[in-house]
Every structure is written in structure tokens, then in C-alpha cells.
Amino acid sequence: MNNKIPIPKEYDEQVMLFEWADLMSARHPELYLLTGSLNGVRLTIGQAVKAKRAGMKKGYPDIHLPVSRGGFHSLYIELKRLKGGRVEPEQKAWHGRLRLEGNKVMVCRGSVEASEVIMDYLSKNILKEVY
Known about the structure:
This protein has four helices and four strands. Helices cover 37% and strands 13% of the residues. A four-stranded mixed sheet has the order 1-2-3-4, with helices on both faces. It has one domain (10-122): Trna Endonuclease, Chain: A, domain 1, CATH 3.40.1350. The radius of gyration is 16 Å and the shape is globular. It is an alpha+beta fold. One of its GO terms (molecular function) is nuclease activity.
């Protein structure tokens, strides 16, 4: 008998993260702005062609929180399974470009780590320019 607990897939981790965000959004309204990409969803060839034509790009991070904190413009999260999964070269390239533009980019293993990163990010000071 195999008693190993199955490791959730990346998609399931992302669903759990957004369920958590929905629960927390009353106390942290910034979480209403949290969005996820569908880059990790398997598509038919026809769907993939349509998605690419409509702007989907390989390597784009899974999660985006367009809220400025701690000197960063936004938070991007590349979500990985608790075990397995690696950051691909296209993802690394996106991360570098996004960091150059003043964004915080994190790679998180699982929804719990991602939720901790989000809460830490939201706890940072809001920097406002004086006009």
C-alpha cells in the first residue's frame, strides 16, 4: 500500500492561494487586485495559438499584485509545487526584466509560502511622492 500523500499540482496550489486571498480581502482590500495568469493551464493547439495572438507570453509569472510597497511598483510571484518544478529560462528572463522595471519578483514553493510573501509585501511602507 502506498501511504505517500500526493503533492498538489501547481494549478491546485494557485487555486488554494486565490481562495485564501478571497478570504483575506475584507481585511486587506489590496488583495482584490491580485490576478493570476493561465500560463500553466494546458491548452489545445488551437487555444494556444489564440492565447498567443491575444498576448499570452511564455514565461510570464503566475501571479501579479499591482500594488506599490517598499519602493517596488508591483509584486510578481512565480508559483512552483512544493516538490519538483524548476524555473525555466524564459521565466528567468521575465523575472530579470520585471526587476529592472522596479518590481519585486519572488519564486514560491506552494500556496502557503506565496501567501506569506504577499502578506510580508503588503506590510511594507507605502512610498508616496510629494507633489
